[in-house]
Specification:
Length: about 400
């Protein structure tokens, strides 16, 4: 490792699937991880969407190195071909890993990293920078402290920073004022959030799998109730631009979900509104009126904003990062994940070279590394981590992969 003293730990931010995987690989290579998790349990973001069934099977969702560690203690690997819910992933994989005797001593729960810098080096100062340790400000219920580390792996996810409903990328006029009736992400419609949606008119906004999951659950709830109406607002001109996984999609569950949504549309159980670009949300008699240019949608009781997520980069403001201005992913990764270039979601294998920054020994990994691009898979994250941690042991620049040529990636 080129930089700071080797006896310092490597800091990992976030104990989601990818942060935990980083801890496993660090231990395997003889490093000491120090893992900070803002939530009160590992996998805190996963638990927010625990009711959602994943579209990738167990074989994609477990890091082989973590599985090997768990198996030493008699852990039984779940059936490779089954599709877990987020909650099942938490129960059968994340929690056993986080509480494993080798990982648990390095994991600090209720510990939010609020800032990262180099010791006595603000972002402007160059001299000696690469050999100076990182400083992480960690906020806990007992107060704040600074922790020194030789490298930083940011696996803090994006789930806490959803995109706005507003089509301009900023809140629609009135969006904040209507926040009591808006849920961002995928609410547990058939479980804890049921009362919010029973016999209500609900608008789902978004065109990804989170929107499909919400629509599917709303349709199921509607079958059990008397008076529900489900609206679906999308920016596209037609559904054909949205429901487009190839029939031979290697993730068949993803394809099946799309087929189910198409059936619900054909049966007119969902009302689609295309070319919806929300600029204002007004409140009228306890209803929300969504405006898109000169048009408005029928009044609704609630809105589900399944409009994706964005990374919170404020944590890294005092470090020398190169972030692509469009995708908000590390610049060298951007051409591989940019949805403007690749619509089918297949991202070539990549690693430390694409994830590196001018700031030596800093890496963003996991879903946060994709910035605003929506196609991240856990399996990719586990490979990222493997490459990044090998790179920590080397002074050599890892070789970048070639960007995927657009024609092979067009959906
Ligand atoms: C509804 C939904 C379904 C998905 N389905 C699939 C699927 O089927 N297959 C698949 O491969 N992928 C799926 N994904 C995408 C992705 O794999 C998951 O989002 C996954 O949880 C990403 O893992 P991660 O470790 O990168 O981030 P996260 O799981 O989000 O973990 C980040 C962790 O960092 C913590 N944290 C955040 N900020 C800080 C801070 N400042 N300090 C300390 N800790 C912090 C959070 O509390 C959290 O525990 C899905 C995503 C969603 C939202």
């Amino acid at each position: 490792m080129k930089s700071a003293p080797l006896n310092l730990p490597v800091a990992v931010i976030g104990a989601g699937p990818i942060g935990l995987s980083a801890a496993v690989h660090l231990l395997k290579r003889g490093h000491t991880p120090i893992l900070f998790e803002a939530g009160e349990q590992a996998g805190a973001n996963l638990s927010s969407w625990g009711h959602v069934r994943m579209f990738s099977p167990w074989s994609y969702n477990i890091d082989p190195a973590a599985a090997a560690l768990l198996k030493q203690d008699g852990w039984h690997e779940p059936d490779q071909d089954q599709f877990p819910t987020g909650q099942e992933l938490l129960k059968h994989y994340i929690t056993p890993l986080a509480t494993h005797a080798l990982i648990a001593p390095h994991l600090h729960l209720n510990s939010q990293v609020s800032h990262i810098s180099r010791r006595n080096h603000d972002v402007l100062k160059t001299k000696g920078r690469d050999t100076t340790p990182f400083v992480l400000r960690v906020v806990t219920p007992d107060g704040e402290r600074d922790v020194i580390a030789q490298a930083v792996i940011d696996a803090s996810g994006t789930y806490q920073t959803p995109n706005w409903l507003g089509a301009h990328g900023i809140p629609a006029l009135g969006e904040n004022a209507a926040s009591n009736a808006i849920t961002y992400g995928v609410p547990d419609i058939l479980g804890s959030a049921r009362d919010h949606y029973t016999n209500k008119t609900v608008l789902v906004v978004g065109a990804g799998h989170s929107a499909f999951n919400a629509l599917q659950d709303l349709a199921q709830l509607a079958e059990q109730t008397t008076d529900m109406r489900i609206l679906w607002g999308v920016r596209s001109q037609s559904v054909a631009n949205i429901i487009r996984s190839p029939e031979n999609d290697e993730l068949q569950e993803r394809r099946l979900l799309e087929v189910r949504i198409q059936e619900l549309l054909d049966q007119q159980k969902i009302e689609i509104h295309s070319k919806v670009e929300i600029d204002a949300i007004k409140q009228d008699n306890n209803k929300l009126i969504v405006h898109s240019g000169r048009h408005s949608l029928p009044p609704v009781d609630r809105i589900i904003a399944a409009t994706g997520f964005r990374p919170d980069l404020s944590l890294l403001a005092e470090l020398r990062t190169t972030i692509d201005p469009a995708t908000q992913s590390p610049s060298r990764l951007a051409p591989l994940v940019d949805p403007n270039l690749h619509s089918c979601g297949s991202v070539p294998e990549h690693g430390a070279a694409e994830l590196s920054h001018p700031e030596w020994n800093l890496y963003i990994v996991g879903i946060k590394s994709y910035g605003r691009a929506p196609t991240f898979l856990l399996r990719t994250g586990y490979r990222q981590v493997l490459s990044v941690i090998s790179a920590l042991d080397s002074d050599e620049e890892p070789a970048p992969v070639q960007p995927c040529p657009a024609p092979t990636c067009q959906g």
